[in-house]
Amino acid sequence: MAKQSPPTITLILLLTAGFLLPQLGLSALAMGWFALLLPLLGFLCLRLAARQPLAPQYHRLVVWGQPLAAVMALLILSKLIQG
Predict the structure, then answer these.
(1) What CA–CA distance (Å, rounded) separates 23 from 26?
(2) Which of 39, 54, 71, 79 could form a disulfide with 58 if both were Cys (CB 3.0 to 4.6 A apart)?
(3) What's residue 30's pLDDT?
(4) Which residues contact 45 (CB under 8 A, 6 or more apart)?
(5) pLDDT-flagged residues of the chain (< 50)
(6) What single-letter DSSP state applies at residue 54?
(7) DSSP 3-state assignment of 2?
(8) C-alpha distances out from residue 7 to 12, 19, 20, Å
(9) pLDDT tens readout for residues 51-67
């Protein structure tokens, strides 16, 4: 069994931003259409994290985080359209 290396600080920061930015966008609806950019930036962070060699537990975070960011973006978009 191959020894797994610990995650790099870059990976930790990308995963953290990937999960926190979409949620921040939902709580920052007062910023208007700018709030819609936050889930997209979170999705981009997760895509960048996916390009790094990942241990299985981090790969699962990326797999679940990308749909979460997309759903958050759709939720923010629907709230912005409703007024």
Answers:
(1) 5
(2) 54
(3) 85
(4) 14, 15, 17, 18, 21
(5) 1
(6) -
(7) coil
(8) 7, 17, 18
(9) 988 888 888 888 899 99
Amino acid at 32: G
Between CA 73 and CA 1 the distance in angstroms is 40
The pTM score is 0.83
Which pLDDT value is given to residue 61?
87
pLDDT attached to residue 37? 92
What does the block give as tokens for 69? Answer: 């960011």
Radius of gyration, CA atoms only, the chain: 14
Query: Is 11 within 8 Å of 52 (Cβ atoms)?
Result: yes
Q: Are 58 and 81 in contact (CB under 8 A)?
A: no
Give residues with Cβ within 8 angstroms of 4, minimum separation 6: 55
Token pair, residue 51, equals: 């390009």
User: CB neighbours of 61 closer than 8 A, spacing ≥ 6?
Assistant: 15, 19
In what helix (H) or strand (E) does residue 22 lie, and over which residues does it extend?
helix 9-27
